Structures are given as C-alpha cells and as structure tokens.
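Kindly review both lines to help learners:
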Amino acid sequence: MASSRVLRLPRDQRRAQLLQAAIDVFTAKGYHAAAMDDIADAAGVSKPVLYQHFGSKLDLYLAVLDASCDRLTNEVEQALASTEDNAERVSATMDAYFDYVARATGEFRFVFESDLTDDRVQDRINAAQEEIADAVAEVIAEDTGLSGSQAKLLAISLVGLAQVSARYWLNAGPERLELSEAKQLASTLAWRGIAGFPRTG
C-alpha cells in the first residue's frame, strides 16, 4: 500500500515516474485488468496523486501509448539518420525494431498488441506507423528516384517485415534464435530486396 507521505517531485519527474509504473502494470495485466490502485501502488503514491496527473485510466493508457509510439518512431528515425551507407541503414533500422521488442519492459505490446479496442488507440498506432513509413519512403525515393507512391509501398513492406519478424522472434519459444542472428537474417533479407532498386546519382 502506498505511503501516506509521498516524496514531492517536480511535476515532470512525477509524471515520468507514473508513466513507468503504468507501463509495468499495463504490460503485466493488460488495460482491462489493470486498476488505477495497482498503478498508484506500483508508483508508491496515493491514488489522488495519480489523478492529479491523469484524469482517468484511459488518459493514462493513452499517455503511455503516446510515449511508446514516440520512442519507437524516434529510434527508427535515428537509425535512418545514423549513416549514409544504405546497407548499414537497413541493418540499423531492423536493429531498432528488434531491440524495441526485446526490451524487458514489454513496452512494444502497447504499439503492436494492445488489448484495448478504441478508435483513439488505433489512430495513434496508425499515425506512428505512418510517420515511420514516411521517413523510410523519403530515403527510398531520394536514393532510387522512384515516385512517392512507389517508395511508400516499399517502405510499408520493409516496416511490415521488421515488425512481424521481430515479434515472431520474441515469441518463438525454445526455437528462438540469438538476437544478433535474428537481426542479421532480417537485415539481409530486407537489404537484398531493396538493393534491387538501383541507386540514382
């Protein structure tokens, strides 16, 4: 049970603490089974303190989802910008997806496996996937001279490959490959595919 004496933190630090506690609880229990009492206890605060920052469980869940989507989007965009070598760029992008799902927090489940059926949830997930695909498509269009529509289709395909293969790897059970080997296999497949489109300039 949360202590009646809660250490006062700056608002942004308190919010970050509450979000992390919410990630832990929502990951373990899912949206429907989690209670605000559980999250307050996990954060070591009273429920009124939690409600000072988030008006409802849905508000808190959406804040967690936004943070998770932003994290994945930022990590993929950093991977794309990390090098001018396209083979390395593909590898870095695949690494970003595999590292994201491999984290012990299980945060990826908010983005890829949410148990909450709500238009606001799906809209946020779709927006994040669209932003990532647009970033990948921009690189493809610049390097190949393909049209925006062509580049976008290839980008969606690459993003799908990264997401599905990373999630499959995580849930493969006893047959699961080492993370480094899984990354290499997925990266090789993606690069051999996209490398078939000649680079312009």
Observations:
- Confidence is low (pLDDT under 50) at residues 1-5.
- The longest helix spans residues 119-144.
